[in-house]
């Protein structure tokens, strides 16, 4: 992971001073580096694929960061991980360019490894990400969003990049691309579901934001979908009338009162259990144990 | 070129209906397809590299389109090639996403050919593009922009993608990557210089826009840089005071009166001549002739 941080910084700095400054700030603002971790764990302990795994880990984090930067432009977000966004501090042009640069460098990083297959895997995931982002905007304010449509959105905007991280790790190291890709996709789905639960459950000091920010953005997530089926008042909710953090917290309380949070958590934990169930087929017990730890880490964040 | 159009349409349509609609509209709005043409001509007549050349031509045009879409978002542009921009017709989110998708698909298209080197070439060019775009915004309203800095900007934002187009063609076909890359870079620089001359010289019915749009954007180009050295009044120009199309046309007339347009054209034509001078080293006379035709085509647009 140290090699990852060092390499991310070099890549971010490589294209002009101004751009480098903002790209670096984005990278250094951090985050959990969950996707690079998945790459490394999926690659397994073999040192042979070390360079390829490092390149893949860097590339996956760059694509993830690029998406966040562009999202902040579109949402006119002011803070991200407790720091001013590039969009807020340097304007939309700089933020759009920084995102575009991070995208370009991700593919350059993979191509530098000399193999085309990783580029195919990551470009497919990044196309899915864009599609998922748009699906979310299309479905905004639609209380009647179905569970299937919600899951499709989570798959596109989150799980596909988790899948790509595992597939890229597998390509760099241990093989087992199919099995590890499935694992990544399930963990990614669970991660998104739990993230959506956390937005409703809080507490704010854990998430760094008010409860109910999704509601204020018009984003309908699984807790509301489940609660809507249980509470006739929520089934009639006018999402556009939810405008203040206080109103959003009130709706969060109503959702929690239906038991929808426990149900959503149960569905997510089932996905994690399914992801772990396939792991014994892996030949290397130490890799299996490491993957189980990562899976548990995703869940633990929400206990 | 027919295969190119067909393939561009398939790629644009491949990721969701809404996104496909806008990506297709972008592609179908057309343009001169000069960059794909360079790929094909640089690849030469050999049918062996046909698939690789087609992929490269598609990828180069996708990156070019993505850049235009993102530029329109940042400039809040309403029209592009006589049609409403995506930013104007479907909003910034859709336009940003469409640009991101076109970027992703460019790299997927190249990776599908099974070789990593083309991905490296294109991702370097697209990073340069972003850097050039930002340089232009950083230098906006700066009348004292030097000729060196202007040429560096043109190199990054235009010539590098022309170079990449030629290098990708060379990789797919004839070889001679170094020579053809140099050719592409020179033609690209000349193309940008002549484009900047055209913005000052008009006529508007040729360019589809008023004379002096660069001035209104605060973009300082070679004609103004040369004219500033010749006319003491232009050397004192307050760019921010140029606000209406009428005022911009007045400044265009003042620039033209110094002879700066002829001088800028002369510099561009010299670059084209230098580009052509290396071509006799190519083993295939028919390829040399085709490249000369493309070089002349770039110039002809401005006669």
UniProtKB/TrEMBL annotation, chains A, B:
Leader peptide range in chain numbering: none
Keyword set, alphabetical order? Magnesium, Metal-binding, Transferase
Q: Which cofactor does it need?
A: Mg(2+)
Concerning Pfam families, the annotation shows: polyprenyl_synt
The protein's matches in Gene3D superfamilies, at most eight in alphabetical order, are given as: Farnesyl Diphosphate Synthase
* Top-level lineage group: Bacteria
Family, per the entry? Belongs to the FPP/GGPP synthase family.
Q: What is this protein called in UniProt?
A: Polyprenyl synthetase family protein
């Amino acid at each position: 992971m140290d090699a990852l941080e060092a390499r991310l910084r070099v890549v971010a700095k490589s294209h002009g001073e101004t751009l480098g400054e903002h790209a670096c700030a984005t990278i250094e603002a951090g985050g959990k580096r969950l996707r690079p971790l998945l790459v490394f764990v999926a690659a397994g302990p073999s040192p042979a694929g070390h360079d390829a795994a490092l390149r893949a880990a860097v590339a996956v984090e760059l694509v993830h960061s690029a998406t966040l930067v562009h999202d902040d432009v579109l949402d006119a977000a002011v803070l991200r991980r407790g720091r001013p966004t590039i969009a807020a501090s340097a304007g939309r042009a700089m933020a759009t360019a920084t995102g575009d640069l991070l995208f370009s460098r991700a593919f350059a990083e993979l191509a530098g490894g000399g193999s085309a297959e990783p580029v195919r895997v990551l470009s497919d995931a990044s196309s899915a990400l864009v599609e998922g982002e748009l699906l979310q905007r299309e479905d905004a304010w639609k209380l009647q969003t179905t569970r299937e449509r919600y899951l499709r959105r989570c798959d596109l905007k989150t799980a596909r990049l988790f899948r790509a991280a595992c597939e890229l790790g597998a390509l760099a190291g241990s093989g087992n691309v199919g099995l590890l890709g499935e694992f990544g996709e399930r963990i990614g789905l669970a991660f998104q579901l739990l993230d959506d639960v956390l937005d409703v459950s809080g507490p704010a000091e854990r998430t760094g934001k008010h409860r109910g920010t999704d509601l204020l953005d018009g984003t309908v997530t699984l807790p509301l979908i489940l609660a809507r089926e249980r509470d006739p008042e929520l089934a009639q909710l006018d999402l556009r009338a939810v405008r203040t953090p206080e109103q959003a917290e009130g709706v969060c309380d109503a959702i929690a009162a239906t038991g929808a949070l426990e149900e959503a958590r149960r569905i997510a934990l089932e996905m994690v259990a399914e992801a772990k169930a396939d792991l014994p087929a892996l030949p290397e017990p130490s890799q299996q144990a490491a993957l189980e730890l990562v899976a548990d880490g995703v869940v633990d964040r929400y206990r």
